[in-house]
Automatic annotation (TrEMBL), chain A:
Residues 69-260 form the ABC transmembrane type-1 domain. It comes from Streptomyces paradoxus. It is a multi-pass membrane protein. InterPro entries: MetI-like, MetI-like_sf. This is Raffinose/stachyose/melibiose transport system permease protein.
Length: 274, 307
């Protein structure tokens, strides 16, 4: 390694990180602490007058943030659990059984990796089922959308696990349900971490499908609220509130990532490159 | 729903008593179908059925203006073809997907090569470059709107007055750059894994044969990265054809509809109550994705085997 590159590389990394990630984050941080008059034309200057507390309190109140947070939790958490549980059950069967029917069912179930969800007719179907604008409807849609991903990752993972463990348990008289709960699910732990973060990444920040299924109103999730706050910004010029909202909304994802960082990284990468 | 799962699980354990084991095929006893059925039911019910319905409703006059839905043949397609929105949406979406995939993969690969060694410094900066992936795409869009606005931060730093988001030609490129920025961390992780998977003795052999870093990259590492490239290019292309949030938050489809991708169009037309017309566009998106995805996956798989 040439000496230029030895010092050039970290310097380049620092420069890129500062420009590409530092500047946008800095803008969010300083703007969210400015009074409205200073935030109208967003810039990178430090606030002349600091008022983060007032901004965050305003964003909490005007954006109905607590309700949005609860609404987001109430659709994202059940969706994640269902995607994982149903996906694991299906992946187990798809990975262990071999027949034309199984391959066909597997191919069908992972078609959602590539195909786009038909969002307009989803609305039609939910209306006929009486699920339009409800949380169960939203959960069903998210679950349907992300099952393919979890089935794909988990099937690949289970295929790589030797069957001996299962066979030993079967010798001891364990039923399939018991084997699934006691052996297969615990073995799936690394890929469950990955699938959780992937589904959360998409569902927590989704605004497009939430707009069609939930609309605004009482059940609006955090991103939907952000959209409403920001759309009002055309008239109010409230960048300071928009960015206070962005900070609060992003914190849960960052926290989840920091806690599970190592597992998430290894999970994402091992699933993808097979 | 959790209740039904638990309930159905109990029945076969009663049915699978030892006497019947001999008659059923072994796989059916050990990995019974009903483990897969709830997933298949939800996936079929809320993903496949809507996609099937999407082959019928575009040919009707379903809208918010009247309660009945009548078959009208190709009327909706004629409308979107004649007002130019069909071709424009196809072209805009394809250009968007292509550029977004190029930027996302380009940034990701450069970052992976820069941060390849497993030092503490590199691990920290990998996390830093992964941050944009964690921020919602809508929020990302607003951040860049504030940066690139004509009265925004970039112009005030550079002392310029460029309408970054106001060009009918270049704004699409800028929005795809933002898309690439948002997802580069994910591409980086996957390229890092690909790089780590290259056997050390191969690199050693290349070095002994006198290959410089440049030659090593193109002759050894790049071919060995094929699976990572397949995954990244496919997910980037397909994912960005479904884009909505970033475009909506930065330009809303403008200026002059120059960034109006499929989902933005559907969102707008659905808001006007023209459901069947939105559904027609949704069907076109479906067909475009299939037309791109199948040759892409087949082609990239073949490339992996050849390299």
């Amino acid at each position: 390694m040439t000496p230029v590159w030895r010092y050039g590389r970290p310097a380049l990394v620092l420069l890129l990180a500062a420009l590409a990630v530092g500047v946008p984050l800095w803008l969010v941080a300083v703007t969210s602490a400015k009074p409205q008059a200073e935030a109208i034309d967003p810039n990178l200057d430090l606030p002349r007058h600091w008022q983060p507390a007032a901004n965050y309190a305003d964003a909490l109140a005007e954006g109905a943030m607590l309700r949005g947070f609860l609404n987001s939790l109430l659709v994202v958490v059940p969706s994640v659990i269902l995607v994982l549980l149903l996906g694991a059950g299906a992946a187990w069967v798809f990975a262990r059984r071999k027949s034309k029917l199984v391959s066909a069912a597997y191919a069908l179930c992972i078609s959602g990796l590539l195909l786009p969800p038909a969002v307009i007719t989803i609305v039609m179907e939910l209306r006929q089922l009486g699920l339009a604008g409800t949380r169960p409807g939203m959960i069903a849609v998210y679950t349907g959308m992300y099952l393919s991903t979890s089935i794909f990752f988990m099937t690949g993972f289970i295929r790589a696990i030797p069957t001996e463990l299962e066979e030993a348990a079967r010798m001891d008289g364990a039923t399939p349900s018991r084997i699934f709960w006691r052996i297969v699910l615990p073995l799936l732990r690394p890929v469950i971490a990955t699938a959780t973060i992937m589904v959360m990444l998409y569902a927590w920040s989704d605004v497009f499908y939430a707009f069609f299924v939930l609309g605004g109103g009482d059940r609006a999730t955090l991103p939907l609220n952000l959209y409403q706050v920001a759309s009002a910004q055309l008239y109010l010029n409230n960048w300071h509130l928009v960015f206070a909202y962005v900070v609060v909304m992003s914190l849960p994802m960052v926290a989840v990532f920091l806690v599970g960082q190592r597992k998430i990284v290894s999970g994402i990468t091992s699933g993808a490159v097979k | 729903m959790a209740d039904t799962v638990v309930r159905t699980r109990k029945q076969p354990s009663a049915a699978g008593t030892p006497q019947r084991v001999g008659r059923l095929p072994r796989a059916a006893v050990h990995h019974p179908w009903w483990f897969a059925l709830p997933a298949i039911a939800v996936f079929a019910g809320f993903f496949l059925v809507p996609n099937l319905l999407n082959f019928y409703y575009p040919f009707t006059d379903w809208s918010s203006y009247h309660a009945d839905i009548a078959f009208t043949g190709l009327d909706n397609f004629r409308t979107i073809a004649e007002d130019g929105s069909l071709l424009r949406a196809i072209r805009t979406t394809l250009v968007y997907a292509l550029l977004a995939a190029v930027f996302q993969n380009g940034f990701g690969l450069v970052l992976a090569l820069l941060l390849e060694d497993d030092s503490r410094f590199n691990r920290f900066f990998r996390a830093v470059f992964f941050l944009p992936v964690l921020i919602s795409a809508l929020a990302t869009g607003y951040v860049f709107q504030a940066l690139l606005d004509q009265d925004g931060a970039v112009n005030s730093v550079l002392g310029t007055d460029i309408p970054w988001l106001g060009s009918t030609t270049w704004t699409l490129v800028i929005v795809t750059l933002i898309h690439g920025w948002k997802w580069m961390g994910l591409a980086m992780l996957i390229y890092l894994a690909g790089l780590k998977g290259i056997p050390g003795n191969m690199l050693e052999a290349a070095r002994i044969d006198g290959a410089g870093p440049w030659r090593t990259f193109w002759s050894v590492r790049w071919p060995m990265l094929a699976p990572a490239v397949t995954f990244n290019v496919t997910t980037a292309l397909i994912g960005s054809m479904n884009t909505f949030d970033i475009v909506q938050a930065t330009t809303g489809g403008g200026p002059a509809a120059s960034t109006e991708v499929f989902n933005i169009y559907m969102f707008r037309i659905f808001g006007q109550g023209l459901y069947a017309q939105a559904s027609a566009m949704s069907l076109v998106l479906f067909l475009v994705v299939v037309a791109v995805a199948i040759p892409l996956v087949v082609g990239l798989r073949r490339r992996e085997q050849m390299l």
